[in-house]
UniProtKB/TrEMBL annotation:
Residues 30-324 form the Sulfatase N-terminal domain. GO terms for molecular function: metal ion binding. This is Sulfatase family protein. GO terms for cellular component: plasma membrane. It comes from the Bacteria. It comes from Fructobacillus ficulneus. It is a multi-pass membrane protein. Substrate binds at H200. Pathway: Cell wall biogenesis; lipoteichoic acid biosynthesis. Keywords: Cell membrane, Manganese, Membrane, Metal-binding, Transmembrane, Transmembrane helix. It is found in: Cell membrane. Belongs to the LTA synthase family.
Length: 432
């Protein structure tokens, strides 16, 4: 009911953090490439196998002087995996504690999503993904998010042949190459989301598609991970080279994020070997949830930013750079460039991390040293943990209320954002 939304918005207002106004609108009116790196984890950055960098192109991009690179950025997905990452990235709303919010509520709910907002700022918006349009209910959800176009597998020539096997999506090199040519045709400014897929469990790859050595943990669903990650990196490098030739590299903002972990917590011994550790603690597992978040633009003052944050924060951070006011909007994240950022990262299961403490699998750790610490005889930890846990629980509960109660249909204070008409979007070839 409207009163329920009012309560959620009161919670958000109470916990609001002012954006960093020195960055407000610095990238206004630029094209946006939103690049979704499937199953790509932060530990792969600058990682080497037999002395060879797994991802030289992404490493160079990460360290580029015009790239803002976050090294304490976490995935916050639940069972919705990629679709939870998309729900957070496009709406700054969490997925659900079980199942996929996009699948269950994507068709029917009212959203105030990035494509719809930018669409009312003169942007043409398009999503690209070399898989079937119905996966994760994208074909319906994207109409609720306000995408003008959705280029799914149906839009790519001989896409089945371009897949490792039909069950998978298209190979990233072929997908990104063809996608760049579509994007070149888009009116500018555009907001284009590109979702890769080759670097996906169980990380097997055609022999002719990689020359990179597998790791030797002996775990068959882990040892190919660096090979498919290397392939994704090559595909990314080829895309950047092409865009540099077309001029789109210089007049666009590039936002890159890893959507969630690639290697799950069931592979502890393999993870220990990859990280060169004898054993893996719950602190190590929490750290292992980090994914890249990078923002590149010509002229943007780059650097490694240590602010603790997560996928829920991507939308407010981008909107501020694009000079789009989001006052009054129902977003659970905050601008990661804000100096007053509370730096509380909520995991979907209620665990959390901050620059001081980490709570993971019912254990507490010093976030700097990884040392396990105990509530008993530790009043500082007890007080902080209680406050952080309350905020995490309230954030997740309030976000769930917005999704399960479809509360945004009652939203009156959208600023100058107009509610969209889903029926006005038609991705013809993707409905088959
Ligand atoms: C499916 C692709 C992978 O289209 O996005 O989804 P995931 O299995 O990572 O959730
Ligand atoms: Mn995924």
């Amino acid at each position: 009911k409207p009163a329920d939304l009012a309560k959620v918005q009161a919670f958000l207002k109470e916990n609001s953090i002012p954006a960093n106004m020195s960055y407000y609108g610095t990238e206004k009116g630029k094209n946006v490439f939103m690049i979704h790196l499937e199953s790509f984890q932060q530990f792969l950055i600058d990682y080497k196998v037999d002395g060879q960098e797994v991802t030289p192109n992404l490493n160079a991009f990460y360290h580029d002087q015009n790239t803002l690179s976050f090294d304490n950025f976490y995935n916050q997905v639940g069972q919705g995996k990629t679709s939870d990452a998309e729900m957070m990235q496009e709406n700054s709303l969490y997925g659900l504690s079980t199942g996929s919010a996009m699948t269950k509520y994507g068709t029917s709910n009212t959203f105030e999503a990035t494509p719809a907002i930018l669409g009312q700022q003169g942007y043409t918006t398009a999503a690209f993904h070399g898989d079937v349009p119905t996966f994760w209910n994208r074909n319906n959800s994207y109409k609720s998010f306000g995408y003008n176009y959705f280029f799914s597998k149906n839009f790519y020539k001989n896409s089945d042949k371009a897949s490792y096997n039909v069950g998978y999506g298209m190979k990233d090199k072929l997908f990104l190459q063809a996608t760049a040519q579509y994007i070149e045709q888009l009116p500018q400014p555009f907001y284009a989301k590109l979702i890769t897929v080759t670097n996906h469990y169980p990380y097997d790859i055609d022999k002719e598609d990689t020359t990179f050595p597998a790791t030797k943990t002996g775990d068959s669903t882990v040892d190919g991970y660096v090979q498919t990650a290397h392939y994704l990196d090559q595909a990314f490098g080829e895309l950047m080279d092409y865009l540099k030739q077309t001029g789109l590299y210089d007049n666009s903002v590039f936002v890159l994020y890893g959507d969630h972990y690639g290697i799950s917590e069931n592979h502890k011994s393999a993870i220990a070997q990859l990280l060169g550790k004898d054993s893996i603690s719950n602190y190590d597992l929490a750290q292992f949830q980090k994914v890249p978040f990078m923002i590149h633009a010509t002229g943007l003052q780059g650097g490694i930013n240590h602010t603790y944050g997560g996928e829920i924060d991507m939308m407010p951070t981008l909107m501020n750079l694009l000079g789009v006011s989001t006052d009054g909007m129902t977003m659970f994240g905050h601008d990661l460039l804000s100096q007053q950022n509370s730096q509380v990262v909520a995991f979907r299961d209620g665990d959390w991390t901050t620059p001081t403490y980490t709570k993971y699998r019912n254990q507490y750790f010093d976030s700097k040293t990884g040392q396990q610490i105990y509530l008993k005889d530790n009043p500082a930890l007890k007080a902080t943990a209680a406050r952080v846990q309350a905020y995490v629980n309230d954030s997740l509960t309030n976000s769930d209320k917005v999704i399960t109660g479809d509360l945004l249909r009652f939203d009156k204070n959208r600023g100058n954002f107009q509610k969209i008409d889903k029926k006005s979007y038609d991705y013809t070839k993707t409905d088959t």
